[in-house]
Amino acid sequence: xxxxxxxxxxxxxxxxxxxxxxxxxxxxxxxxxxxxxxxxxxxxxxxxxxxxxxxxxxxxxxxxxxxxxxxxxxxxxxxxxxxxxxxxxxxxxxxxxxxxxxxxxxxxxxxxxxxxxxxxxxxxxxxxxxxxxxxxxxxxxxxxxxxxxxxxxxxxxxxxxxxxxxxxxxxxxxxxxxxxxxxxxxxxxxxxxxxxxxxxxxxxxxxxxxxxxxxxxxxxxxxxxxxxxxxxxxxxxxxxxxxxxxxxxxxxxxxxxxxxxxxxxxxxxxxxxxxxxxxxxxxxxxxxxxxxxxxxxxxxxxxxxxxxxxxxxxxxxxxxxxxxxxxxxxxxxxxxxxx
Length: 339
Prior knowledge:
This protein has 339 residues and is α/β, with parallel strands linked by helices. It has eleven helices and 13 strands. 40% of the residues lie in helices and 19% in strands.
């Protein structure tokens, strides 16, 4: 069994594979098997892989399962001690894997880790999707060392130290295969968005650790190419975030947080309409809340199982403040400013 399997989930990403897969092969092949799991692409991805990257292991899925279940379907067929879930738009660097492998080998209490994520668009700045490790506030709003809401910091080495985090980015997630399987993997019902936060939170509740190792760094296209308004992304983010809170919050916090989120979500919807003039995003928030209410009952047993498996009552990386208050009222827009 190989020690490390890098698994790139692809869906119609031929251009990204052509641009960034060569760096993965160049800087990773000595330490890992490299797989591409294809989510039933209809572009030239498969022909590209077979013709130009025959050294990659190719796994062809029969339909587009989305990010979450796509990885679940792929990883059940791949044997390794460690998995690396790597986006197709990631450019890796020389020596990026070694610190991750060495740290995980020497810290059995750690279930998962991530490298420092920098932007391909601006290589001296963090990248939105994970920056230098993620956290959430009391009401479920995610943020990172290096990124709070839309404020992305310049990387001046201010976070160049190993730090415990609540969640590691799904763009470059290094995780023990046994932890992935024991925790049930990503929640396939999410399809995409918030699924890695949900997985890491469940691992933290079990007493497992998550860290960011900035000695390893990669570059991510990510948000640099996304449209500012994306109603489907808005829908999935709101629906999945509410579902994650329902699954993972303790009984004594759940009712209060859900009441506050009801108010905050509708404020966000009206802000999208009145200030950003996005009818699509406005409607997506209403659809997300309706969808969450409809499928909430399907997660009752998940919640019971997660709470029964809880071995920690308080997670330091789950901050107790309101990020909205810190950011918009107190003007604290950098991670180092937060109190």
